From TrEMBL:
Species this protein is from: Rhodanobacter soli
Domain (Class II aldolase/adducin N-terminal) ranges: 19-208
Cofactor note text: Binds 1 zinc ion per subunit.
Name under which the protein is recorded: Methylthioribulose-1-phosphate dehydratase
Stated role: Catalyzes the dehydration of methylthioribulose-1-phosphate (MTRu-1-P) into 2,3-diketo-5-methylthiopentyl-1-phosphate (DK-MTP-1-P).
This protein's encoding gene: mtnB
Length: 216
């Protein structure tokens, strides 16, 4: 892929971000969380740009050339490549949360099943799990960690509006599910975002197991 960078972005900076995104995507693919070219990943490059996975690429085989630069309106910068159709959900996080620098979106089986199961309730309420403390800002298992489940749609402005409404209501938001789709989460760096993703995968799996056991 041909990528021409703005003069304000050193090639080494973009390459570092692209490598970090590609490395994370390959690792998450080995866990089975990115089936059939699904999922998308991004990392902030500077105040006005982010590096994001190109649409339709297999996440287990990504390299530096599978990552492109976008501005925070979701427009491609210096390339004809096409970013994910869900790019608006990434740039929304970067615009609304200047301290956040990484967004990861995966489609694990656990995430997908949980999104269907809890869609009617509109959220998954996590309480009593020690691992809730893996989420930044949560210091006790006694707190309630609420993960909203938004209806699925191909119309990204509708999803963006739902996320904005949640944030505008003053509710904490560290991640959300999309019905029948998967999970979005973010953090200040790749390590924090990976920790959030892994903790949420575990917690959602626990909630699904409890549902099954209580129904048996």
């Amino acid at each position: 892929m041909s990528q021409t960078l703005p003069a304000t972005i050193p090639a080494s900076l973009f390459e570092q971000r692209a490598d970090a995104v590609a490395d994370a995507a390959r690792e998450l693919s080995t866990l089975g969380w990115t089936p059939a070219t699904s999922s998308n990943f991004s990392m902030r490059v500077d105040a006005d740009h982010a590096a994001i996975t190109i649409s339709g690429r297999h996440k287990g085989r990504l390299g530096r050339d599978d990552i492109m630069l976008i501005d925070l309106d979701g427009n491609a910068v210096g390339t004809d490549a096409r970013p994910s159709a869900e790019t608006a959900l990434h740039t929304q996080v970067y615009r609304r949360c200047p301290e956040m620098n990484v967004v990861l979106h995966t489609h694990s089986r656990t995430q997908s099943v949980a999104s269907r199961l809890f869609a009617a309730e509109g959220a998954v309420r996590l309480q009593g799990w020690e691992l809730q403390k893996a989420i930044t800002g949560y210091h006790t298992h006694e707190s309630v960690l609420e993960i909203p489940v938004f209806p699925n749609t191909q119309h990204m402005p509708e999803l963006v509006a739902r996320v904005n409404a949640w944030l505008d209501a003053g509710k904490p938001l560290h991640a959300y599910l999309i019905d029948g789709h998967g999970i979005y989460t973010w953090g200040r760096d790749m390590a924090e975002t990976r920790r959030h993703l892994e903790a949420l995968e575990f917690l959602l799996g626990c909630e699904l197991d409890l549902k099954k056991l209580r129904a048996s």
